[in-house]
């Protein structure tokens, strides 16, 4: 039941994340990526902090602070800049499809770090899904913006950041709690983004935003910041990083729909084929039942990353 709740939370997180891609795309040309990330995660941190205090979860131990800070900078600092910048060059649907490489990248990262084994079946699934993504992006190139490939590569780089975060953060979440860990790491990442944004003058265009654009920033903070990443960490506490990452296939569907509604971006057959191929590849790569060796490997890899194996009472 716990793992089922985790997968459900991951799917809901990915659905909201897909909607956030379309919303981000709608304001990507108005203010720069640093400012968008500052609002998204600054608001998210302010909303998560009282929840974390009310839940009385154990906060990350002092020995974990360097790792938590590093993950915060990676996921709530580098990731949003790459994510937001990509949507200045490509459509919401293509951006989400590029982000849907996350399960495949997570499998490869988890295997490289010794957290999960990369079996023949997983390897085949990776190849099928990657072929689907490549076919969708290639066949849709004529209808995409001229700079779409810049955006696609930036989004894949963002997905790689997310893959490392998903694999590395699980051990920290196990030793503290999902909300406290996410709040602390988000606060660190948001603080750095805000400082850099202020130094670069990234907030200057904010004075000219209209109600629709402020509403978009509010959505990104409340839903795309606080709720999305609370659900993601909740899911990582209950199941493996690869199974959580699989839920990202919900993302392109939500992004394409929001992009069509807000930006009148076309829903073309190549995106549907790409999503179907990603689903197929992940279905191949992920058998219905996990072997005991995979499960133990996941736990063993999670223990090895952190400085200790202790569990704090919650």
Keyword list:
314 residues, disordered C terminus, mainly alpha, 13 helices, globular, 0% strand
Describe this structure in words.
- The chain is mostly helical and 314 residues long.
- It has one domain.
- The protein contains 13 helices and no strands.
- It has helices at 2-27, 33-55, 65-86, 92-99, 102-112, 120-139, 148-175, 178-200, 211-238, 241-246, 250-263, 269-285, 292-305.
- Helices cover 76% and strands 0% of the residues.
- Helix 1 (2-27) runs antiparallel to helix 4, helix 4 (92-99) packs across helix 7 (148-175) and helix 5 (102-112) crosses helix 7 (148-175).
Q: Report the sheet with the most strands, covering strand number, pairing sense and barrel closure.
A: none
How do the SSEs run, as a string of H and E?
HHHHHHHHHHHHH
Number of helices: 13
The shape is globular
Which structural category fits the helices and strands?
Answer: mainly alpha
- What is the mean pLDDT? 78
**How many structural domains does the protein architecture include?**
1
Terminal-residue CA separation = 20 Å
Question: C-alpha Rg, in Å?
Answer: 19 Å
